[in-house]
Amino acid sequence: MATHEALLSVDGLHVSYGTKEVLRGIDYSISEGEVVAVLGANGSGKSTSLNTISGFVAPSAGKIVFGGADITGHPTHKIFRHGVIQVSQARDLFPGLTVEHNLRLGATIRNRDQEEEYLERVFNYFPRLSERRGQLARTLSGGEQQMVALGRAVMAKPRLLLLDEPSGGLAPHFINEIGTIIHAMKDDGATMLMVEQNLSLAFKVADRFIILRDGVVSDGGFVKSLEGNHEEIVRTIYL
Ligand SMILES: Nc1ncnc2c1ncn2[C@@H]1O[C@H](COP(=O)(O)OP(=O)(O)O)[C@@H](O)[C@H]1O
Ligand SMILES: [Mg+2]
Questions:
Q1: Which residue range forms the structural domain that includes residue 183?
Q2: Among 78, 108, 132, 150, fewest CB within 10 Å belongs to which?
Q3: CA 60/CA 190 separation, integer angstroms
Q4: The pTM is what?
Q5: Which pLDDT band holds residue 99 (cuts at 50, 70, 90)?
Q6: Which atom of ligand 1 has the smallest separation from the CA of 49?
């Protein structure tokens, strides 16, 4: 068997905002191809964890290693060039540009020669976006904007995709589509770290979960081994 090396490892990560310490020594690692759900109550530091990996927030201590390279505290554009792509809660679309233009901006130096192929792939995943390719992003519904944000991440051909509550505020029929695209990206080889409050979506797409509590990883495991019994997890998160 090949040696089992983590694509991402986070070691003793501490993050503070001013005097308030939000992460107090977070440790975990993710293997290539895994989808890991980050669970935890509101304010437990889930978004902060993703923002620290992508470089938007600098840790006060600890280490982040991606693909064998120490990326701790590196600027966002450098981390992006490693293929670490984030879809954040605020969706950061360019409101005055069309759907197609927003999507094309996702293509990176890593796959510029496949831009047309990836654009077609996004339109296959989301036929709704194909119909609206010439429409300005600001005129889309919330769910459609979320599709553009996800589609833009597909365009970037991420090695590691950081998803912050992809189902946030969406109608149930959009949540199913998001589950479908996450599966498709996984099949395309993306590794994912996903914050998701909708546990049925999280457990449908994730291989493994970790729970943040009081600034540390308090629990975790393989979704399969839960055998559908998710209530215990809900208690661990919220009680
Ligand atoms: N930029 C910031 N400045 C100060 N406090 C922040 C900032 N971002 C988040 N926080 C605080 O840090 C804690 C963790 O936030 P966050 O990571 O967004 O949690 P979650 O995503 O789990 O809800 C919260 O108490 C939040 O108010
Ligand atoms: Mg959050």
A1: 33-44+75-238
A2: 78
A3: 29
A4: 0.92
A5: very high
A6: 17
